[in-house]
Amino acid sequence: MIKIISKERPTPIIGQKETELKYTLYVESSGTVSYKDVVKFACKHTGMQSTVMKAAIDSCCQTIEHFLSMGHRVQLGELGSFFITTDSNAVYSNTEAGICQLKKLNIRFDAKKDLKEAINNAERELAGVYKIVDHERKIYEKVGTKESDGKNESGNNSNGNSGGDSNNGNNSDSGGGFSG
């Protein structure tokens, strides 16, 4: 299940220097799946031995790294493609253009349609609504979890749109506040 949280954020007002506070949705991480767990899961679903699976995954990673470093876009079946982009300084003329403009290379992933649909159709819930309590340090406090009535746990109105997809009345709690 994908957990969605709503966080109060300063949002620019178009055409003005001021900002207003609005609630924006974010995915709350469920943690990182380790290499060992990926191997174990893949072995369970394929019947392969873990040493063979590790060798296959390692070889696949080395292959992706090799072809990306050669400037290729690397497609992994129906999963999607890895490719390289750049961050660089802009210049005014072609005569000024050169490799010294390059700040860094970025690795990007472009998911194919089937993966995008699988993620968009995954079960999701609103795991919490967070409000800024210290603007300078961007510290958040959890003020609610129920999306249906817009009230926090104490029953008071949270003065904001809790946003997100319906959680069908589930009142899940993912823990206390955090700093972001």
Write the layout of secondary structure elements.
Elements: E1 2-12, E2 19-28, H1 35-46, H2 50-69, E3 74-76, E4 80-88, E5 102-111, H3 113-120, E6 124-134, E7 139-144
Parallel strand pairs: 1-6
Antiparallel strand pairs: 1-2, 3-4, 4-5, 6-7
Helix pairs in contact: 1-2
Description:
With 180 residues, the chain is of the alpha+beta class. Helices cover 22% and strands 33% of the residues. The protein has three helices and seven strands; from the N terminus they run ββααβββαββ. The strands form two sheets. It has a four-stranded mixed β-sheet, with no helix packed on it. A three-stranded antiparallel β-sheet has the order 3-4-5. A hairpin with a 4-residue loop joins strand 6 and strand 7 (139-144). Helix 1 (35-46) crosses helix 2 (50-69). The radius of gyration is 22 Å and the shape is flat. Residues 148-180 have low confidence and may be disordered.
Which regions contain 5 or more consecutive residues with pLDDT less than 50?
148-180
Give the number of helices: 3
Q: Terminal Cα separation, in Å?
A: 22 Å
Spell the H/E element sequence: EEHHEEEHEE
Largest sheet: 4 strands, mixed
Percent of residues in beta strands: 25-35%
Count of extended strands:
7
Helix content: 10-25%
In short:
The chain is an alpha+beta fold and 180 residues long.
Task: Give me some keywords for this one.
180 residues; alpha+beta; 4-stranded mixed sheet
